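Q: what does this look like with G3I bound?
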Amino acid sequence: PSTLKAAGECKGIMMGNVLRQQQIANVEHVALLAEEFNYLTPENATKWMHLQPERGVFDYGKADEIVNFAQKNKIKVKGHCLVWHSQLPQWVDDITDPDELKTVMETHIAQVMGHFKGRMYAWDVVNEAIKTDTDAGDGNPRMRKTVFQRLLGDEYIDMAFKMARKQDPDVKLYYNDYSIDANNDKADYLYEMLKGMVQRGVPIDGVGFQMHIGTPNNIATGAEVAKNMQRIADLGLEIIISEMDINLCGGRNEAWQQALYHDITLACAEQPACSAITFWGLNDGSSWLNSWEGAGCKTEKPMPLLFDNKYQKKQTYEEVINALTGR
Ligand code: G3I
């Protein structure tokens, strides 16, 4: 196979990337995107602050441009994300009445999903609800104290999925989070949470492993990823890799990065329940990590992706192809 999407097809895996509305004007960028990928996540445009910046005021302009680009190129789209504490407008954070918040959440989900109905393949319904609480001193994972959790309790997650399913019986509904791919307490906590959701009959299709490798507390091996995928598959859920990048900050080297791209891709390729791999950026120059100051990235170049600044394939690209084609 000569492209990522062709290689992915051999294993039944969609190959994804992200897009910002401003990038659509970059011909070289979008041509490569359409050539190599068949799945797309708007990097920011379908987040709450962009879609409903003020209460009752919905703005779909930028998101529509991205979805239209995808449709024109026969690329499936995952909306990201309906309920998240970050990139949430202040007016939502300021709500103090539980019933009001519940109504606001239901309205947002209904309006947004309604607008994109038939054009989205999937939605991240809840994003990053679990926090490894180093602030609390014990480092234990627990539910993040967002406005949703404080007013509605942990049940806000079940609620969001039920609201989303009510809007669309066909679209895939995912829970998405980071640092849940290795052998760690957060991955165990996630597993218990998912088990509970499945037992309660919550309409969830699967989970997105973000796979931002090299960011704090997130180093996983292929074997660890495979193990976490397997126990989630055993619950009857689907797994996607939803935001993969492996950065070189903190003195890590390219051989390590290349091997890990291979091994993690292989974990997905060997797992029948793993259905997609999305990379969080097309080329090194457009990675979010370039403006991120954690994990040594302020002083070192992250270079976390499959294409370099000039849109040339890197060895990381070849390793992903190798893993998908059994080399
Ligand atoms: O577009 C404006 C630009 O006009 C302005 O001049 C500039 C000055 O700050 O900001 C630009 O907006 C930035 C935007 O990215 C577009 O690049 C925002 O400040 C910045 O906050 C925003 O960051 C995004 C981040 O989520 C916000 O939390 C990243 O692009 C995006 O890659 C990142 O993605 C998240 C996932 O949604 C969830 N998982 C983690 C992942 C990485 O943090």
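The CA atoms of residues 114 and 167 lie 7 Å apart. The domain at 4-39+129-324 is CATH 3.20.20.80 (TIM Barrel).
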